Amino acid sequence: xxKNIRLIIIICVIAAVLGGAAFxxxxxxxxxxxxxxxxxxxxxxxLYDKAPSDLAKLTIENEKxxxxxxxxGEGDSAVWTVASIANLPLSGNVMTKLxxxxxxxxxxxxxVEAPEDISIYGLDNPSATFTAEFxxxxxxxxxxxxxxxxxxxxxxxxxxxxxxxxxTVFNTALSCFLEDKYxxxxxxxxxxxxxxxxxxxxxxxxxxxxxxxxxxxxxxxVIEYDVRLDDEDSMVANSSTYVMSxxxxxxxxxxxxxxxxxxxxxxxxSDLAVLNPNEDDLEKSGMNxxxxxxxxxxxxxxxxxxxxxxxxxxEEGKKEGRFVYVDGIDIIxxxxxxxxxxxxxxxxxxxxxxxxxxxxxxxxxxxIVCENRDMRFELAGGADNFEVTLxxxxxxxxxxxxxxxFILRAPSSELYFEDVSAEPSLxxxxxxxxxxxxFIEFIPVGNRQAVVRLNGESKYRCQQSYVDRFIKNLELYExxxxxxxxx
Length: 487
Fold this sequence. Notes:
By secondary structure, the protein is of the alpha+beta class. It has helices at 2-28, 92-103, 254-262, 279-284, 347-350, 397-408, 464-478, and strands at 45-49, 55-62, 65-72, 79-81, 104-107, 109-112, 128-134, 141-149, 155-160, 166-170, 188-190, 207-214, 221-225, 242-246, 250-251, 267-268, 271-275, 292-298, 303-313, 319-326, 331-335, 363-370, 373-380, 387-390, 393-395, 414-415, 426-432, 437-446, 449-454, 457-463.
């Protein structure tokens, strides 16, 4: 019996403790103040709704400082800026968010009608405030006080000046007011220009010329728009829009070169290093002797030029990127190296494997000369009536295509610009129907290497094994046998 009494007493004590804890939780929870409102119940209400075009001034104050957004112009032509950083490029998206979110406000819930203690909600020492002044007929002024996050952290407690109620508003609509003014600066240095005229057919996403100059190489890498694409009658085998014109002329491989060309558009920094830098800032960041310079001449007239400088090392001693300075923008940026392909790109990384890009049906003549062989091919017709003669006699067109494919597969292990005096062991002359073409010479230089002279200038070095296989394939071709693709 005594055991049962003790058990009952223990149960009562536990119940009393739990009840007391529950009572304390109820008294301290912001959601359960004097009106007993339940925050789970959705009671969305529009607190105010003004035209964004009527916003004349927006004053934002938070723990990071105070700044003003002012309107320049009227009506649909109005733009908003921050006077203290007006010379720097501001993000149109962020500015639009500030203007729109301060012009109209919707509460998700009314938490309490008249709170006794606003400190429960963080409204006595707010995270931020904004004051929106409108140029409407009433010269409306709205001041919003932004407090703590709600327990689920998706909304914040707010109060409107002159209104005793505490509301909740989605944090996504308020987060922009908690940032400092430097968050308004656009980190994207160049985007594709929009056409302002529906009759404007200019392709602003096309680069006419891209030049990369680097300290680690003694030549420029120059990429240009392939003007052959503008000729409806031209038969171009290249699937890229661009060619490399220097240090050698080659078609670009669209898969490996896309970052180098399209990376100009939407080029975005990871952070800002120095605003309004002086000469000392530029020198310290490496802009007086940059490791690379990039100039993009963009269709429509824009020219983007930027310098890539020293490595950026953070406070922990880790490399986080490179300093970059863009002409016309008074900022030293920080970019991750992965966003700067021009820093390390090599010509042979981004071109096709072909020395020549002449399409087979565009050929008029192909002359191959090596020891004991002088093969003169003449070609006519197209895909439906392709005809080939060798030294005046008709030969199989498909077999010729296989031989020509082997020529197109000629390797280039490295660029090589030094002239050589030795005689070539193999020459290939390509003449196209429009009078163009290429003259390719393979010159043995020892160590199982051959220099490739293209149109009279040394351009590449390749394996001698390819040249040896080429000569053997000519014998196979003459004997009616299948040529060997590998070497």
